[in-house]
Amino acid sequence: MFNFIKNFIFFLFLGTVSFLIIFWFNRSFENQNNTVGENKSVSDTRPENAEFNNVPVLPIGEDTANAKEFSVKTDVYDIVFSPVGGTVSHIFVKPNEKSQEVIDLIHGNGTEKAFDLKFGNYRGNDIVSVFDYTVEQKENETSVIFTRDFTDKNNVPFTLNKKYRIFDGEFMIELTVEILSQETKIPFLSNEQPSYTLEFLPQIGPAFVETSKKNKSGSANYRDFIIYKDEKLKKYSDYERVLITTRVDWVGIESRYFAAIGVEPKLTTHRIVMDKYSDNGYVFNEIFFERKPFNEIEITDTYRFYVGPRVKHFLSIYNSENDNAFGYSGMSLDKAGAGRGIISVALKGVMNFFHNILHIHNWGWVIVLLTIFIKLILVPFSMSQMKSSAAMQKLQPKIKEIQDKYKNNPQKMQAEMANFYRENKINPMKGCLPMILQMLILIPLFNLLRSDYDLFQEPFIWWITDLSSPDSVFTWERNIPLITSFSQNSIRILPILFIVTQLLSMKIMQIGTEQAANKQMKIMMYLLPIIFFFTLYNMPSGLFVYWIVMNILSVIQQLIYNAVKKNNKNKNSSSGEKKIAGKKKVFAK
Description:
Blueprint: H1 2-26, E1 38-40, E2 58-59, E3 70-73, E4 78-82, E5 87-93, E6 103-104, E7 117-119, E8 132-138, E9 141-151, E10 157-167, E11 172-181, E12 196-200, E13 210-212, E14 215-216, E15 224-229, E16 232-236, E17 241-244, E18 250-254, E19 258-263, E20 269-279, E21 282-291, E22 298-309, H2 312-316, H3 342-357, H4 363-394, H5 396-405, H6 410-423, H7 432-449, E23 474-475, H8 483-487, E24 490-491, H9 494-510, H10 519-535, H11 541-588
Antiparallel strand pairs: 1-17, 2-9, 3-4, 4-5, 5-6, 7-12, 8-9, 9-10, 10-11, 11-22, 12-21, 13-14, 15-16, 15-18, 17-20, 18-19, 19-22, 20-21, 23-24
Helix pairs in contact: 1-7, 3-4, 3-7, 4-7, 4-11, 5-6, 9-10, 9-11
């Protein structure tokens, strides 16, 4: 029974690790089969514009305005605007003060831009006319206004305005689309039902390459469509296209550390199209807002776009009008924040305590302190496990005797074993509790450390320059069959340290137990590190810091326990010898 319990704990651990590996690489459990309106998958190609014959809308006059791109900066953004179509070419953010890299949140193929507008449905042609523009700044607010005149097929002239508004300290972009007829007639913009379509980003950055669904350049670079409706968040991980025909609160694209969320004007949207396509090995996610036909000579539609970190602090300010400069409220954007579970939120609270209250500004050391904190919580349970294992070890001869005596009568053997445990006040399943508790903490911690924006591009020590990415001490360019696919052409130190400390921890835990002589357990003890090495090799550095420190603490705890146990044993032996010597002396008298 003792062997069974130990093996059960061991394989429970192995099964949990396997689950985490599957979760990391496939993330299949996040795929949602729920539909919002119509939902379908299409081939991995860009849809052809020629399928639709929308009404031609022509610009009035030649392009005379300056087509040169220009930059507008806030304390969180550096946005590059393009007069061609009145669009946005780049949205640069700097993750933190220590960061050496500026992240472009718009990832395109060099020609695609954010906030393109086209007349008709989402497969129409982008407006490529050059717009006149003005930039207005006051206090912490900046407005960029693009304007251009067009004419419809009936020669009705109208003006198209695109007004952007941004504020310091906020990752929100407000875009107002105005269509103003220059006559008393309503412009006729499309034969299709939508009058115009606003395209929301070619891709949320930073850039990554995905050559196929099954071969991604690092699972950390996933992109999911997300939809928030009726206080529920739904994800669409493996869908090439999602068509939304019902009212939703907001839609977006989610990556590991960033999110792009679009909030449509109320009661004006005909349909939302979330589309994924490939172009020369690059995969792009786009969202289109198709506008209903209108019956007025003037319309004003205001869209709101959050483009920034998946951090609750930045997302939650739009729940109350007093917390943001736009005066927005009730948007529930924080539902897209990383670390949504109760345990993840609690662990992040502990990390913030170390970082903000104790002023431990290096997030690597914060992870070390968090690991010590978790270990201290688990110490009473793990000590109970050790004592239970030691008690079981002492009773092994009697347990084996019962097993041998009733080996041909399993029911009788189980009954005798149950009585034996009851008489000796032993709970064989007690040893599983620390493992279960650790798994309950490990999975939320796993999610937290792999998606916490505070760790993005944060250095730790020496060669660990980014806690959110795998470490690397040497890289090479030439691809090597098999090796490149698992190593990403990099030699990493942290996976090796993890395997060494894991092996040491398992070895020390087996000292003094019959597991040391168990061939099956010996094989598994050496096999597991090999499995870990190949499957965990490209994990973020922050996760490895946690695992390595936890292994070291487990080794220290086991060594202390073994030393105390040995010392108590020696004391008991010495006490026994004194008693025997005393009896002999009396006898001699």
